[in-house]
Amino acid sequence: MSATDFETVVRGVASLCPLADLAESLQGRFSSLLGSARLYMSPLVYSRFSVSLFLYPVLGEILALALLPQPQATLVVASLAVVQSLPVLVPLTLSRTRSRAVDAELPFFLIVLSIFSRASTPTIDDGLRKVAALGDGVFPALRAEEAIMERDLTFLPGSPDSVIERELGAHPSRKLREFAHSFMITLTTGKSVTEFVEEEATRQVQLLESKWKGFSESVGSLAEASLMVLALFPVGLDMIAAAIPGVASSQILVLSLALLGLFSVVLLVLIDSAQPVLHNSTPGPWPLLMILASWTISTYLFLAGIVPIGLSRTFAASHPDARLIELDSDHELTDVLPVIESAALPFLIGDNSSQETNQ
């Protein structure tokens, strides 16, 4: 989805906002968030979009909780909650992507800036212009920052130094903010800019090198921990479920999905904190949408007790030694246990002439 299409969707949903006064009072909270995410639209429009996207799914959540069984209602409410969180998650994700991209290029930008500083005393905006002139594929993130800087210097009031300090002070990259602040202090105190840039470039390169070493040492431990959890998790969950009377398989599934999702988030955070980034590209939305859609559909089919009988028929037709017994029951088959028992006993006590698949 392009930026124009996204803005069109935002404006369309914002026009349906039922609480305009509430949206107006919240627009200040979205101003800095939109700026750090490079979403250049009216904070009031985005605030109305956020309020609309939060309030309208509430109706669906109330109906789901009132009309559906608890497992299905939980699934519907969780899916709608994801939709409600999108107005905050999308800018945060874009802001994080912008920060990571700048952090990846900053050490090499400082090396180039230290080379330029030997011939003259550069400013931050001058350094950004020089690296942007190297081409699109050299410093793509900083080239985008240079375009934003040129726009700010052209349209925002104040001296160039004050505009740069104000805008970089609100940048999502902590490393860039610290560098810009120290650079401005060096200029105002009359210290050598060349020495400062060279020292900062050396420090950033050393930090990058140490981070790579730490990541190479920790990635093996993270992989071992992940495999251990994935191997022991189903067994441990089955043992806990067996000790608690009245626990249904649908509840075990929901619990396992929640715990695995939590573990995956923790693992990704650990990897992201330890992994140095050399090139950070914005991922496309389709893989995530396909994963969410497949998870939602498969989980709903399980919770609803819908298991395609065609899969079992295909298996039985392709395996001559298998015998399919079709039963009118739900996914847990708890109401047809006597039938399963009578069919399974001959096999268990030694009559293995048939293999039965029950559904």
Total number of helical segments? 13
Count of strand segments: 2
Oligomer: single chain
The largest sheet, given as strand count, sense and whether it forms a barrel, is:
2 strands, parallel
Helix amount: over 70%
Shape: elongated
- β-strand percent reads under 5%
Low-confidence stretches: 352-359
In the sheet with the most strands, the strands line up as 1-2
Radius of gyration: 29 Å
The helix-and-strand class reads: mainly alpha
For the residues shown, what is the average pLDDT?
Answer: 78
| N- to C-terminal distance | 43 Å
Note the run of SSEs as H and E: HHHHHHHHHHHHEHE
Description:
- It is a single chain.
- 75% of the residues lie in helices and 2% in strands.
- It is elongated.
- It has a two-stranded parallel ribbon with strand order 1-2.
- Mean pLDDT is 78; it is low at 352-359.
- It has helices spanning 3-14, 20-36, 43-67, 70-117, 124-132, 140-155, 160-169, 174-189, 193-243, 249-274, 286-303, 309-318, 337-348; strands at 322-325, 355-358.
- Among the domains are: 100-210; 309-358, no CATH class.
- The chain is built from 13 helices and 2 strands, in the order H-H-H-H-H-H-H-H-H-H-H-H-E-H-E.
- Helix 1 crosses helix 3 and helix 3 (43-67) runs antiparallel to helix 4 (70-117).
- It has 359 residues and is an all-alpha fold.
Brief synopsis:
This protein has 359 residues and is mainly α. It has helices spanning 3-14, 20-36, 43-67, 70-117, 124-132, 140-155, 160-169, 174-189, 193-243, 249-274, 286-303, 309-318, 337-348; strands spanning 322-325, 355-358. Among the domains are: 100-210; 309-358, no CATH class.
